[in-house]
């Protein structure tokens, strides 16, 4: 029987072959159960985590056989967090929009984090695992806490690997694409047609672990396509298709072109947000992940998953007529 090392010990963990392609931060979340994401970022930035003896970034993709240095961290004892509330369990159970043998998809409510950490004990994945004890469930991707909409969870490791390869535009699956469609209300009157925003994005961490994203020449390539569906009371209701999946991509691209997403407290227009709150009752970010299209098994099994616009956002649109 293997005795786990004491918290004061450094561990060298070999990455299993079935974890090949996983991001370093996600791998560490699995190794340091209960660690908040802000702590994961902190120990990576400070160089306490090493991959094959060298420093690495949180988004580094691991290969099978890599040696990861996991530093000692002080964590809460298992069970200290308790369990998700009954209301959160009920909300998550009701959010299911699709399930088969290898995937399930939910329509995540705004205000629920993708996973616990940074002051949040229970997110989507922890709550789903509490609903399905003993079942292996892994997040395929994330949504911002304030964004509502479609999230996919893998029930099988093979599906997780293939979908994550599609999400990161892996050359091994060149030719295969994943269609990501969002619905957003943005400030002002956008022009007709499709407005494509090709602007690199850079993420930097503020004190306390808060992420802030900006357009920067040294950032990662990022491409979004905005198309006006209709205009209401001086605002533009848009479909947004993204070809990359950067942190806060739609929100920052919308700000960059002068049409910030309505209700956005970080990148939006505070005065416009206040007017929309008073006039239409908009109390949160008007951004919804509406659909995903992809194919598994090398393109042979297509999926088209949808999450309808939530009632609170439909009500806002109705009030803007």
Automatic annotation (TrEMBL):
Gene3D superfamilies hit by this protein: Pseudouridine synthase, RNA-binding S4 domain
rRNA processing is among the record's keywords: yes
RNA-binding S4 domain span: 22-83
Active-site annotation: 144
Catalysed reaction, written as an equation: uridine(955/2504/2580) in 23S rRNA = pseudouridine(955/2504/2580) in 23S rRNA; a uridine in RNA = a pseudouridine in RNA
Keywords: Isomerase, RNA-binding, rRNA processing
GO MF annotation list: 23S rRNA pseudouridine(955/2504/2580) synthase activity; RNA binding
Protein origin, superkingdom: Bacteria
InterPro entries cross-referenced by the UniProt entry: PsdUridine_synth_cat_dom_sf, PsdUridine_synth_RluA-like_CS, PsdUridine_synth_RluC/D, PsdUridine_synth_RsuA/RluA, RluA_PseudoU_synthase, S4_RNA-bd, S4_RNA-bd_sf
EC numbers on record: 5.4.99.-
General function of this protein: Responsible for synthesis of pseudouridine from uracil at positions 955, 2504 and 2580 in 23S ribosomal RNA.
Protein's recorded name: Pseudouridine synthase
Species assigned in the record: Luteimonas aestuarii
